[in-house]
Amino acid sequence: MTTLLPVRAVPAPANGAPRARRLPSTGAITDAFSRPMRDLRISVTDRCNFRCVYCMPKTVFGRDYAFLEHDELLSFDEITRLAGVAVAHGVHKLRLTGGEPLLRRGIEGLIERLAALRTPDGEPVEIAMTTNGSALAVKAEALRAAGLARVTVSLDSLDDAVFQSMNDVRFPVDRVLAGLRAAHDAGLGPIKVNMVVKRGLNDHEVLPMARHFKDSPFTLRFIEYMDVGTSNGWRLDEVVPSAEIVELIGAEMPLEPIGATAPGETAARWRYVDGGGEIGVISSVTNAFCGSCNRARISTEGKLFTCLFASEGHDLRALLRGGVDDDGLAAAMASIWGARDDRYSEVRATLTPELRAARPKPEMSYLGG
Ligand code: SF4
Question: pTM of the full predicted structure?
């Protein structure tokens, strides 16, 4: 059994280039708050076939929007190399995101490569995906065969008029539900369903969604509407606090809290007292969870972001295409993560609306959830 020793990186020199300090080939990387890097989210495309109003509004992502060119995207080889280095240094879970990851051609081939990775202890790495479910009914079997373990599907309403006003491309609910069934039949579980709740838009759908997914193989999670990126016009009064959602559901279908299953879990879990399954609430606004946040993100064109709300990323693609070897990549990751002190959700409330608005933030569609 390899002993994973915490590795403290040497701070990066003033010119920002990571100090070429050789790291042991394995060893957990921790940040300024001793949070390990355990969960790596990889955005494989900045494109999406939906235009969800809280993520990719048409007013910004219209016909003339300049998406990244293909050669700007990380190739599957590059993604696999970065993931391999991260796994050697403590990452246990890889999540493929986007945009809509199923739009990336040949994604099954990437999953096969990632599924072949092993932790220093020889354990397989868990490969998960966050998708809008639009192509799941067609692709579920192939994704499972390639090595995908599980999916999280976004669904913000069961009411077609509401859902279509939110995805803004008239995509029908029943095709997402068909995708969910196909994912379940293919064994891509446990399957979570994420609902972003925005007051005045779909908060009246909380109970119908809870009733629908209770006693089903799917775990419904309610996400507080967040100020991700700079294009969704976020307002605090449009956030429905998770406590309000739990109270609303619990009044009709009694709930009790249950503990987290793993460190760094984003959702607080509640189960139905009558055994009808569980729900989750993700409370980035009213109950921040930065203290145990172990999530790193790689953007579509290869920048490492240490927080969903970080203002800028660190260009690993330049290192990859500059001929840097895996030890050099590891040193760069360790240097970047080692200096990490992000806890935006904890400080959000202390920022004035002006300060919040002035802070450049990557779009969710570019960085992935
Ligand atoms: S705000 Fe940043 S540090 Fe906090 S939980 Fe989210 S990603 Fe992690």
Answer: 0.91
Q: pLDDT by residue (tens digit) across 320-333?
A: 999 999 999 999 99
Q: Is residue 76 part of a domain?
A: yes
For 61, other C-beta atoms within 10 Å of its C-beta total 22
Distance 188 CA to ligand 1 centre (A): 27
311 token code pair: 């203002």
> Is position 11 within any domain?
no
252 within a domain of the structure (yes/no):
yes
Q: How many domains does the chain have?
A: 1
Q: What is the domain extent for residue 211?
A: 21-367
Residue 328 in tokens: 């050099």
Q: Is the CB of 26 under 6 A from ligand 1?
A: no
Measured CA to CA, the distance from residue 138 to residue 241 in angstroms comes to 36
Residue 282: CB within 6 Å of ligand 1? Answer: no
C-alpha to C-alpha distance for 279 and 244, rounded to whole angstroms: 14
Going by alpha carbons, the residue nearest to atom 5 of ligand 1 is: 290
| pLDDT score at 26 | 64
What is the residue-averaged pLDDT of the chain?
Answer: 92
Quote the DSSP letter at residue 239.
Answer: B
Looking at ligand 1, which residue's alpha carbon is closest to its atom 2? 307
Q: Is residue 149 part of a domain?
A: yes
CATH number, domain at 182? 3.20.20.70
Q: Kindly report, residue by residue over 245-260, the tens digit of the pLDDT.
A: 999 999 999 999 998 8
